[in-house]
């Protein structure tokens, strides 16, 4: 991999990414400058652990799913050995995408252009009209001449992460405390694993990816941006019964005054990760009791109680994975350009939980994260305004001072003085600066 | 819940009257009148994939029961709703209307095609696909029991969040 090490500003001078992040301020260029975006693709997305997909998307040998790791198109495959591989989606011959579809089943993989075929682990299987290669420097019989595996792949409890860099911190070191939200999601499944419900939604935001990530820990915005929807939900609930729990009743909770969000624990972890505790109460009723009993049967009473006590509304594993963990929703960032961000949005079910839990997750996904949702519809408007505002050249700084004097150290993590603190945004940009300046 | 005294029968042009009226309510942002076209236990469904069959357990592009419709319309009509500043304008063309007949539940099934253009803040967006209406009631008081909206790009990438019904 070639790594660009600097970008130029408008006057042609070198642009030093380190100068764009201060303790409590971030320069607008960190968000809107296309050269910075190119650097991010190399220095962050080219080095970090990037979320690829979940193993339940590809249950059978031959199943595959395609996506991007940074700028690299990849195929996540299930090979005949049962293992999952992440391969470059690029034919070694003349470079064609081998799998142009988003998902499917193929054994072997065959490139449509000249018929080269590959196994699920990428090994070159056959090259038609092989005699043409006699005496050349290319060996069509060498399996290593196939689809390249990404240098590092980690399967963490069914969640597949990959890195384009051969070296760097291992997965556990990279994830650190940032893993607790993901682990808690899996722990909440009475059968010990989660699986995706259907296919993901794909939405594009016309804003920089970090404007979206900032918003994930922005408690303050909730009572402003979502106020009208929350009031609409509350008014409806007062007039008629909610028939499908997990949607309107959750939306109704978003109207909290700033003081409501202030009570939420917000913790920033090393590496740019963070989590915010859940504010929606857990499900109640007979199904919830049955669920609790099956959790206790699987984990034991004490452990089950500890798992159910821990729950997060918002989790970031920087740079690509955002979870609304208590709603079993995950949004995966696939940046396209400085001002365009593709999101893959997945909803998970907890294996072994009652069917009503699936319905609740589906309803929550529809209301909160579908391409017609009534929550992000209003967030998108603020992302648009922020990005458009930051394009303006006269004033440089984005202010992230809120709560900076009230931070509470928690081991290697930092807890915000309250849930409206901008601590996680500061923490994310400090990690960003570390990536952007590391040699 | 609406009682079906007798099986509803409509000519094509009577069915068209209903579809055109429904479209006109949306295009004039008369969301309460639009809502009144549905039965109390009616639903409006845009599947996420063309082959989907069960909005209760499969992810949907949109799946609203009447309470959700009430809240969505309430949101659209609140002048301070951020995503509606400025508001979305829409223009519907509904065509290829076919009255297909009655199903086992006594619902009259009407199939049609739509082309919807929406405009918000200098951006035009197009939606195209098919409606399937399940209708009940009497010719002078037709109600929608179920409306399925099959978007041709339901499983595609969307760079706008759909706010106003199609
Ligand atoms: S480009 Fe793939 S076989 Fe030629
Ligand atoms: Fe929000």
UniProtKB/TrEMBL annotation, chain A:
Family statement: Belongs to the bacterial ring-hydroxylating dioxygenase alpha subunit family.
Name of the molecule in the record: Phenylpropionate dioxygenase-like ring-hydroxylating dioxygenase large terminal subunit
InterPro entries listed in its UniProt record: Rieske_2Fe-2S, Rieske_2Fe-2S_sf, Ring_hydroxy_dOase_asu_C_dom, Rng_hydr_dOase-A
Top-level taxonomy: Bacteria, Pseudomonadati, Pseudomonadota, Alphaproteobacteria, Sphingomonadales
Rieske domain segment(s): 50-162
Keywords (A to Z) from UniProt: 2Fe-2S, Dioxygenase, Iron, Iron-sulfur, Metal-binding, Oxidoreductase
Matching Pfam families: Rieske (PF00355), Ring_hydroxyl_A (PF00848)
Source species: Novosphingobium chloroacetimidivorans
Molecular function per GO: 2 iron, 2 sulfur cluster binding; dioxygenase activity; iron ion binding
Superkingdom assignment: Bacteria
